[in-house]
Model the fold of this input.
Amino acid sequence: MRATMIHGPGDIRLETRPDPQIRHDTDAIVQVVRSCVCGSDLWPYRGVRGTDEPRPIGHEFIGTVVERGAAVTALRDGDFVIAPFTFSDGDCAACRRGLTTSCARGGVWGTPCAEGGFHDGGQGDYVRVPLAGATLARLPQQPEVGMYRDLLALSDVMGTGHHAALSAKVGPGDTVVVVGDGAVGQCAVAAAARLGAERIVMMSRRNDRQTLARRMGATDVVSERGADGIAAALEVLGGPADAALECVGTEESFDQCLGVLRPGGRLGYVGVPATSPTLPLDRLFGQNISVAGGMAPVRPYIDELLPDVLTGKLFPGLVFDRAVPLTEVDRAYSMMDQRKSIKTMLTH
Amino acid sequence: MRATMIHGPGDIRLETRPDPQIRHDTDAIVQVVRSCVCGSDLWPYRGVRGTDEPRPIGHEFIGTVVERGAAVTALRDGDFVIAPFTFSDGDCAACRRGLTTSCARGGVWGTPCAEGGFHDGGQGDYVRVPLAGATLARLPQQPEVGMYRDLLALSDVMGTGHHAALSAKVGPGDTVVVVGDGAVGQCAVAAAARLGAERIVMMSRRNDRQTLARRMGATDVVSERGADGIAAALEVLGGPADAALECVGTEESFDQCLGVLRPGGRLGYVGVPATSPTLPLDRLFGQNISVAGGMAPVRPYIDELLPDVLTGKLFPGLVFDRAVPLTEVDRAYSMMDQRKSIKTMLTH
Done:
């Protein structure tokens, strides 16, 4: 099969890999219909995170079940499924609490595999899915092609934005500031709107992203950054915010969030902290700022969000502003790297 | 009147200051019956925090209303009152949310005063209490002397321990680790027990503090520190904890807390971060650790906790292992500084 491999910074190749085989009776094989490039895929692409050896990449995909192990009773061949960006057993202590990203037996696509080699990545023709019955979210019927982009967004970015909003306890009437105008930040806007926030300020300097944020539900946009951005957000809201959603993962973005929060304000964070940022406790202490978030347990969120997608209430697929064939996956990376695309979908 | 002043590191003096006068019609004058020395009073005493000029010190006291401004209608002369460690108007946006420590018009005893000079400290004969009607918690009747210590603990440490437990969302059946065996940590144990925690581990190396922790409700004690302490706590609990309560304020104590928490665990922190500790976001991210707490809004907590004290269900006054007359206030500081006392009460 064809599979996208990362060899090092800037070095993305579509290569031929052996077709995946069922290894455990809890595995299933999924034929990928759509996948995409994530902001976090850009960390190794930019060399911010190292790549020790060539490995499969991509952790967001939707597709069709084509083969199953004997123990996979929850799925049938031909089922249309959404894969969350981690696999999980659904049964350990963490999963029972809904924290599937901390599953005792779980893992991430494209990482080393206990049996040797690597788990398949999502940006390829097929994926062997471990613990498939618990991992894959099955659609009640075959979706229309026009809905693929919205379903694909449930694989990571929409659930991750939702996690930011939930972690910050966004609720009806709240004022919310979103830091990060990438796909996750855009989805955080949609999540805050869905949870009833009254005012949602997106911090963004780029026209296309400002426009998208308004489509996702932002009531206001602030284009300044740093201290000016904080001042502008406070002015727009007439005071500090109830919640701030951190969707970047840098110390600067956390600083923006802390700057706009009221006493007792809630910071929800989902930006991957690739550069080891720290939080200054003395800034939190006096104002009783709370901080929650992390790697989003997307699997249960698919169940929560899918009905809104299927009934046309939520359109997270709006984050995809480009689509290219899998054969041009290297171009998808470079477009996102150069910010020519917010998020690029790959057609298989 | 007599009032305790700090002049610099190790330099505590009981001096004569003018008797306080009503300055605003929302003021009241309280004659102090009992006060005490706080762990945070030791920061300037040890020189960890500077003392630019001599100032009154002490922020925990109980006593009797002896004079009132015309607007103080909620109190009468002779009322027995508990003063929280900050004053607050009870009416601003923060106070209405219960966050009295972020009151728009509030402040702290012994700090510079808008009218010039300093607010009175609690370790003296009298205190002018601003915004007295909202600040002071009035007892329904005169308490017995034997109850003074429990009431005095509501001024700060019990409410602060309660804030740690509430911030960490401690509830029935939870496993909890408390880091910090001072008065606040001991009260955090009592708060966790009161909220229904099933297992409460106190991290403490000292016999007297271990004994006190068990009286406050700890089910287990771990005397190791650092990595050994983390390993011992995990062994005692048979796994990581649901919640950790940080009651010190150093990077080491936060590290202990992070080390014992399960994925999705909750860190409640109330230790004053005097040394500007930071939190490593990449340690929080993967495990979805949430962090909440800060300067405890003690005023509403007095209303919440007082009934349990008055009905003999809660004995936070157990933290006072020494009592000395106000004339020996310098000895009270040195006993606490040298850890000869967990918390010392001053009799007036």
